[in-house]
Amino acid sequence: MSSASGFAKDIDIDAEETQEWLQALQGVLQEVGPDRARFLLSRLSAAAQQWGINWRDARNTPYINTIRPEQEPPFPGGSDAQAIEEHLATVMRWNALAMVVRANRAYGELGGHIASYASAADLFEVGFNHFFRARDAQFAGDLVYFQPHSAPGIYARAFLEGALSEDDLSFYRREIEAKKHGKQGLSSYPHPWLMPNFWQFPTGSMGIGPINAIYQARFLRYMEHRGLLQDQGRKVWGVFGDGEMDEPESLAALSLASREKLDNLIFVVNCNLQRLDGPVRGNGHIVDELETLFAGAGWNVIKLLWGSDWDGLFARDKDGELIDALNRTVDGQLQTFAANDGAFNREHFFGQTAGTRKIAETLTDEEINRLRRGGHDMKKIHSAYHAAANHRGQPTVILAQTKKGYGMGAAGEGKMTTHQQKKLDEEVLIAFRNRFKLPISDEQCKNLAFYKPAADSAEMKHLLGRRATLGGHMPRRVAGDAKRTVPSIETHAKFALDAEGKEMSSTMALVRMLSSMLKDADFGKYVVPIVADEARTFGMANLFRQVGIYSSQGQLYEPEDIGSILSYREAKDGQILEEGITEAGAISSWTAAATSYSVHGLPMLPFYIYYSMFGFQRIGDLIWAAADQRARGFLIGATSGRTTLGGEGLQHQDGSSHVTAAGIPNCVSYDPAYAYEMAVIVDEGMRRMLERNEDVFYYVTVTNENEAQPSIPQDVGLKGGIRDGILRGMYCLDAKADAQVRLLAAGPMLKEALSAARMLLDQFGVIAEVWSVTSFTELARDGIAVERQNRLTPSARTQPYVTQQLQAGKAPVIAVSDYVRTLSESIRAYVPARYVTLGTDGFGRSDTRANLRDFFEVDARWIAYTALTEVFGDDAGKLQAAAEKLGIDLTKPLSTSV
Fold this sequence. Notes:
Blueprint: H1 15-31, H2 34-50, H3 78-106, H4 115-130, E1 143-145, H5 151-161, H6 166-170, H7 175-180, H8 208-225, E2 236-241, H9 248-251, H10 254-259, E3 265-271, H11 286-296, E4 300-304, H12 311-315, H13 321-328, H14 331-338, H15 342-348, H16 354-360, H17 365-369, H18 378-390, E5 396-401, H19 426-435, H20 442-446, H21 458-469, H22 489-497, E6 503-504, H23 506-519, E7 527-531, H24 542-547, E8 549-550, E9 570-571, E10 577-578, H25 583-594, H26 596-599, E11 605-611, H27 616-628, E12 634-638, H28 657-662, E13 667-670, H29 675-691, E14 697-701, E15 707-708, H30 721-728, E16 730-734, E17 741-746, H31 749-764, E18 768-773, H32 776-792, H33 801-806, E19 813-816, H34 821-825, E20 835-838, H35 849-855, H36 860-872, H37 876-886
Parallel strand pairs: 1-2, 2-3, 3-5, 4-5, 7-10, 7-11, 8-9, 11-12, 12-14, 13-14, 17-18, 17-19, 19-20
Antiparallel strand pairs: 6-15, 16-18
Domain Transketolase N-terminal: 201-309
InterPro entries: Alpha-ketoglut_DH (IPR017600), PDC_E1_N (IPR035807), PDH/Transketolase (IPR051157), PDH_E1 (IPR004660), PDH_E1_M (IPR041621), THDP-binding (IPR029061), Transketo_C/PFOR_II (IPR009014), Transketolase-like_C_2 (IPR055152)
Protein name: Pyruvate dehydrogenase E1 component
């Protein structure tokens, strides 16, 4: 068995019988066709298992192209068109190289990548010229996820198309400087936030692109099956690197794609066999490994390994010695061959056996040196793309073998250090120019001049003509100005505004609002409820019957609970996306829905409800990518906080998600205590995202802790009204002109603060004023903005909102939340009084809510005691007596130390 692919030349004890079997199979193939041949092979395999032979087909196919030469369709436009496109690819390579090297000659710290695009240029060119269809008035457009390290090449093509100027290329990775000169600058990787009219999908954090592409293809089907989008045969393409496939997210949803039969999805994995430091799989074949993974997950796999100039070699390989040598050669050795010349390869690769030496004897060393890998042969690439685009019933992956640093010669082609190459000397530049026959002078070459063929040249006419046929420039992001009218808050949240003491949790209130929205004849169909696998936990089971769970196959079984009013109902036009135990998959679904306004021109409103601890802790990078993509929607952190989820303990109890969320500029986060607060927040969020088209998304935490819900106060003496206070981050529930202490509390801690206020008054005669803090984050952001504005315009100073609200009186302020103290500490600079914070720092514990709050020192008794330390000062006797009266243990260890 070979060290790479698992293929071996087993000893044949009866060659004549073997030949008879092979001839019989060949006869079936010629007379009846491949379908019959496949059927017979499947029957033989099944029979072998049944008879105890214990045999299975090899996991991998031989290390050659999947598509045979005779199966290849003609190249569109023939050899002349192919020659033009090959020349254009060299122009793109040059301009991409020039852009990166220019930037690093002038500003050595900017970075950038040459080698990745050099390997992938032909893969992109065939896509751009023949397959990637842009959005226009008649067609909604294909969707392409671009390999992030290839961004310079995408800019180079946009320059030739006229979508970018030479000035734009001159400001590569200098976005801030570009703005000073009235230019846009070019971001390092695909970033819709930084280039909102260009990039559509962020892929800079490797591994995120593949899972997002899969769920994007699935969401496209969801929209088609629900009748919200027309089925136009759109494709989702993803071009990724082989090293990137080591990220768990890259492979996490492969089975979903095959299970859903997403034949609208095509992956192109650029297998240049090399990651940043060395081979992806030095001692094996990454192509074979990926073939096993994708084929095992149910994908259609196309190997694109060798160029047309290998076809004659394989035709002469009568005994299979060349194929066996390829099967046997590991990737690390293939990279060594890539980095050396024809003479080296003649001796060390073709010289392995007498048969392989004979196959190569008709080639010169130079011809051996120019043997191309499949990802550098446009005819082979076109054949693979054509087969993928026309395949039905499965997603397809094309495993395209290339050379990293292709064309960089001794400076980088196949070298271990090629990924880090950002500066090239003049000799290397001229060698590149000569190899690809670029019509630029030595002086232009040394100065890294950008090259653009004349407007009336055959190359430019071909390039622009192909893009015109395919709908225009790509990539291109179109946000549009489509708006959606949000129904009145009373239509879906009157129960929350006029609760009158009804008992419910904030999770229940949110789900009830969601249920009402879904019933709205005009608005409801655009709401997308998403859960991982906790719908029943979050009280959403009633939605199963109401709107159904999306399934591309409908429901092919009778559910066990069919007699229940809350039975599990799947439907092809179902509205709930119930993703199973995959937070990464669920957030990818949410991202697809939350960016539908730009991707499909159809604004949707997704609500992803999940255990708050499994959001920003577990999939924060995917949430950040959604922010980059300018997502609009609601993330609902359920069973939030560190003490509301009794019994669960360490990993399930969330004490930090609001701190993490605060770091994402366009994430608006709230921790409401009451149903009416939730109603106001959701209403404003919908209006900002759907009516005012703001590129923000909301993170709102809710709990499963039932409590009596008050109606919304009609007058709290707040300028702008209670709605304004809720949205800006805080408001006073019961103002006390003679307050001795002020208690600021968020979310589930509000009732503890109210209870503490009663204790203080009843047991110690201390008057406490209680404030509901709906968002420490919004308060802190306001403070930062006001402080900056005051520095810039000192003649027109204003005060932060927190300062304005607390400036009357000098009573000390105690702040408490169910999160770590860092959250409440974020507003310290704006509190105009002595300020003390309480929080849930430390690891979670499994116990009751009461014991958890005592452990973290955030319950009513601890809040009251902390307030008394401010009122009584250093009177140790009074404080000791107060502690005894409150029943708290002053000797207990700090929560972060146990």
